[in-house]
C-alpha cells in the first residue's frame, strides 16, 4: 500500500486554508476584504495572517490611502506551492472520489 | 495526522478551497461609469473644437477626463482585491488614455489636427483596438460588437463627407460609450442584487 501524504499543518487550519485560497485568486487583497469574505474576527484573522507570514506564505504591504492605513496581503510563490501541494495531498487522501 | 482526520473533514477542506478561490475571482469592480464619462468628454471636446476652433479642445478635455477617471476610480476602489485580469484590462485603457492625450496634444500644438477625417479615423481605430482587446480577453461579445462599430467608423470616415463623418462619429460615441456604459452600470447593479440575495 503506498504511503499516504502528510497534510501541511500550517495550511490545514480552516481559516488559514481559506485565506490562502482567497489570495490565490487575486493579486493582492486588503485586510478588510479578507475579513468580509472569511467572516473572522480582527484578532483571529490577524493571528492567522501572522502565522502565514512567518511561514513565508504571504507578504504584507502597508500603505496610506487618503491618510488611512491600509494593509494588503499577497500570496508568495512558496505559499502558492504549499497550497498546490496541500490540494494534491488532499486529493490523494480522498482517492478517486476527490478528483471530481 | 490524517489518522484523526475524517473523510468528511477532508471533503470540507476541499469545499473551502473551491469556495474561496471562486470568491477571490468574483470581482465586483464597476467600470460602466468610465464609458459614460469618456463619451460625455468626447462630446464636449467635439463641441469645444467645433465652436471655438481651439487647439487645446482635445488635449485639455482628454487630460481632464483622465484626472476625473483617476480621482473617481481611486475613491471607488475601496477594499476590492486586485486581480490579474482586472489589472490587464485596466492597463489597456490607461495606455489608451495616455496615447490619446500625447497624440492629440502633439497634433493640436503642431497645427496638424486640421484633417477631420484622419482625426476621427485615428481616434476610432484606437477605441476599436482597446474595445477589441478587452472584449477578446473577457470573451465578451457585446464589447466586441462595440469594437466592430469603431472599426466601421474608421472605414466610413475615410469615404464619407464632412457632415456624414461627424454624424457617424457621434453615433459611434453614443452606442459604444453612452449606451454600452449605461448597460454596464445596469448589469453591475443586477449582479450586486443577485449576490446580496445569495448571501441573505
Characterization of this structure:
The complex is a heterodimer of chains A (100) and B (200). Chain A is an alpha+beta fold and 100 residues long. Helices cover 54% and strands 18% of the residues of chain A. Chain A contains 5 helices and 3 strands. Chain A has helices at 9-12, 14-24, 31-38, 42-54, 77-94, and strands spanning 29-30, 58-65, 68-75. A 3-stranded antiparallel sheet of chain A has the order 1-3-2. The mean pLDDT of chain A is 87. Chain B has one domain (31-199). Chain B is elongated, with a radius of gyration of 22 Å. Chain B is mainly alpha-helical and 200 residues long. The chains are: A alpha+beta (100), B mainly alpha (200). The A-B interface holds A 4, 6-7, 9, 12, 14, 17-19, 21-33, 36-37, 65, 70, 83, 87, 90-91, 93-94, 98 and B 1-2, 5, 7, 10-11, 13-14, 16-25, 74, 79-84, 87.
What's the short version?
The complex is a heterodimer of chains A (100) and B (200). With 100 residues, chain A is of the alpha+beta class. Chain A has helices at 9-12, 14-24, 31-38, 42-54, 77-94, and strands at 29-30, 58-65, 68-75.
User: What is the number of domains of chain B?
Assistant: 1
Biggest sheet details of chain B: none
Strand content of chain B: under 5%
Rg result of chain B: 22 Å
Taking strands numbered 1, 2, ... along the chain, how are they ordered across the largest sheet of chain A?
A: 1-3-2
Topology readout:
The complex is a heterodimer of chains A (100) and B (200).
Chain A: H1 9-12, H2 14-24, E1 29-30, H3 31-38, H4 42-54, E2 58-65, E3 68-75, H5 77-94
Antiparallel strand pairs in A: 1-3, 2-3
Chain B: H1 7-25, H2 32-52, H3 57-77, H4 84-110, H5 116-138, H6 141-159, H7 162-199
Helix pairs in contact in B: 2-3, 2-7, 3-4, 4-5, 5-6, 5-7, 6-7
What keyword list fits this structure?
heterodimer; A: 100 residues; alpha+beta; Arc Repressor Mutant, subunit A; 3-stranded antiparallel beta sheet; 54% helix; elongated; B: 200 residues; mainly alpha
